[in-house]
Amino acid sequence: MLKQIEGSRAVAEAVALCRPEIICAYPITPQTHIVEGLGEMVKAGELTHCEFINVESEFSALSVAIGSSAAGARTYTATSSQGLLFMAEAVYNAAGLGLPIVMTIGNRAIGAPINIWNDHSDSMSMRDAGWIQLFAETNQEALDLHIQAFKLAEELSCPVMVCMDGFILTHAYDRVDMPDQRQVDAFLPPFEPRQVLDEPERHARVHRHQLVDAVAEDKAAIQH
Predict the structure, then answer these.
(1) Quick one: CA dihedral 89, 95, 96, 98, positive or negative?
(2) Torsion of CA 99, 187, 53, 95, to 10 degrees
(3) What does the alpha-carbon distance between residue 39 and residue 16 come to, in Å, rounded to a whole number?
(4) Going by C-beta distance under 8 Å and a sequence separation of 6 or more, which residues neighbour residue 92?
(5) Do 77 and 24 form a contact (C-beta atoms < 8 A)?
(6) DSSP per residue, 65-126
(7) Beta bridge partners of 174
(8) Per the confidence metrics, is the pTM higher than 0.85?
(9) Residues of the chain with pLDDT > 90: what percent?
(10) Which end of the chain is more exposed for a tag (fewer CB within 10 A), N or C?
(11) Rg (CA), the chain
(12) How far, in Å, CA of 80 to CA of 53, rounded?
């Protein structure tokens, strides 16, 4: 369906079509409109089976994303500029754990002392952090890349950043062709994580016993 909408709204609707189960967010210009749009959809009941979690910082946002993805939930977050730098420790952790998190970067300059305008220095600072980075030239590409990002992340068990120019794309109104839910469902199957923290009950008891034994061994070693 053709729509004339803001780039951030197009991304929000594309992410919603991917049926995320956890969205964790902290506002930072210029990505804020994306998570605001998703929050409105969750509150209105338009995006079901999804929990929107407000956190106190960008580091917390990605930390929550790591926990939810590791527990087996399709997970999304977004940030920009200094927010991505604040996440740095968790960015490497997400990649090292092989978690299929999708994160939008509304590209914005890293401040010196402050700059809100478009620049790729934020994404480039995390170039070697182990995430796939996809860069959109248009709002149509930004929309499409988010749907592809979830499939890539889950097929490869690797986190993906979708990078779009702050203001130039995030705040620009443009015509986009939005797929419907049936089309996205045909392309993106339900999330089947390769690894989860919550083991099936038949294994849980064994792991609990192993943990108790390990703690007992550690205590014995300390005492000796």
Answers:
(1) positive
(2) 20
(3) 10
(4) 129, 130
(5) yes
(6) HHHHHHTT--EEEEE-HHHHHHTHHHHHHHHHTT---EEEEEE-PPPSS---S--SHHHHHT
(7) 5
(8) yes
(9) 83
(10) C
(11) 19
(12) 18
pLDDT the model gives residue 218: 60
Question: Which pairs with CB-CB distance under 8 Å and at least 24 residues apart come from 44-49?
Answer: 46/16, 47/16, 47/20, 49/19, 49/21
Is-contact 179 15, C-beta < 8 A? no
pLDDT of residue 75: 98
Residue with tokens 């796939």: 132
| Tokens read off for 164 | 């779009």
* Residue 221 exposure: Cα atoms within 13 Å on the Cβ side: 6
Could you tell me how many residues make up the chain?
224
Q: Which pair of structure tokens corresponds to residue 31?
A: 């990505």
Tokens of 175: 């015509």
pLDDT digits 0-9 by tens, 132-171: 999 999 999 999 999 999 999 999 999 999 999 999 999 9
| Pairwise CA distance, residues 84 & 80, whole Å | 6
Q: Give the span between the Cα atoms of 145 and 76, in whole angstroms.
A: 14
| Residue with the larger pLDDT of the pair 205 and 151 | 151
| Best CA proximity match to 139, nearest among 1, 8, 2 | 8
The one-character DSSP state at 45 is: T
Q: Domain spanning 2-193 has what CATH number? A: 3.40.50.970
Domains of the chain, by residue range, sit at 2-193
